Amino acid sequence: MKSINRLTRHRRIIPWIIYLIMLAALAVWVSNRGGAISYVFFFTVLLYPVAALIHIFYTRAFLKIYQEVDGRLLYKMTSVDYQIFIECAGIFPMAGIKLTALDEVTLFGENFADQIYTLLPREKVKLNTSMTCKYAGAYTAGIGKVTLEDCFGLFKITYDIPIPLRVNVLPIVTDIAGRDINKLYTEVMNGVRSFRLDKSENYLGNDVRRYIEGDSVNTIHWKNYARTGEMMVRLPEKQDSEMMNVGLVTAGDEADITKRDFMLEYIVSFADWFARQKKPVRFVYYSGSIKDYLVESYDSFQKFYLEVLPEIGRESRSSNDEEILEETRRINGIAAIYKESEGELVAIDR
Q: Which residues are CB-contacts of 74 (< 8 A; sequence separation ≥ 6)?
């Protein structure tokens, strides 16, 4: 890395060395020969840095760049049509324009980043290519920066494009969560873990206790009263639930893009498994407030995938962990928490 930085500095210095040598040679020529031609060359070279800076700042002010992609809701590793529009909005020509693509998150069908563009007054250039997003999630794609440089390389400025291309990329549906789901169910059925919640239902079981004033007359065990003369009430029977409740603790916009990508793929894999099995899974997440969504069929999965999933992770706050945990536990069934920062599913003991 140090050698690369040193080489870059050397490349920046070389044009200035050549410029100073040229300026010194012209100064000697003017002092020895004189004449209009020598003075023209001398002052042209002398004033070139000023003219170059003026041209760069002019280009910065009047260069317009727009990006368009076929839809804002994209799919991971799926190629879509992508256009770039470069326009000279001024009355003078522009040169030395170079675009820097966000290669760390996107792939392009054409390498436009190595080209240097020149525009005539009021000219607009349209570049047609394709773009593929590497990760799921909401982030900036396409072109990230613009570099302006004079023809001799004395000055160079790089800046972020004024209007970035913000995309929302849906994950690929895989089976990466299948092993964890099977493990949770196996542990629950075998009684290894105690995170299954038993919920009292409205029908009565065989367990009884003595009558307490205020108990509903519908719960009185009348056969036992007729036989023994003692007032007893029947207790509700507890029923196990197969409902899976998953709380999602996200990191918001500051999340690492690779962790966000894994989390979204994991969540959609989770939802797909339950939809195919026709079992209910409820996701609890934060998006402006604590929200939840139930996936129990293919139709509800489709809505979750296309509408709900883009909301997950957009917003977060440091105080929502306990709220999500509390809401996840509220409904009967198996409860678990997925923390984006840790990248794993953890069962909650009831």
A: 80, 133, 167, 168, 169, 170
Calculate ∠ Cα 169-166-96, nearest 5°: 125
Dihedral sign from CA coordinates of 200, 201, 202, 205: negative
**Structure confidence by residue, pLDDT tens digits, 259-315:** 999 999 999 999 999 999 888 899 999 888 889 999 988 899 999 999 999 988 877
Q: Given its phi and psi angles, is residue 22 left (phi above 0), alpha (psi -120 to 50 degrees) or beta? A: alpha
Per-residue model confidence (pLDDT) at position 1: 46
DSSP 3-state helix, strand, coil percentages of the chain (rounded to 5)?
35, 35, 30
Give CA–CA dist 123/59, Å, rounded.
13
For 19, phi and psi rounded to 5 degrees?
A: -60, -45
Strand partners, 117: 97
Owner of token pair 């992508």: 82
**DSSP classification of residue 175:** -
- pLDDT for 91 equals 93
The rounded distance, in Å, linking the Cα atoms of 222 and 151 is 100
Burial of 273 (0-12, 13-18, 19+ CB in 10 A): buried
Q: Taking the model in full, what pTM does it have?
A: 0.73
What is the DSSP pairing of strand 137-141 with strand 244-249? unpaired
Neighbours of 236 (CB within 10 A): 14
What is the identity of the amino acid at 42?
F
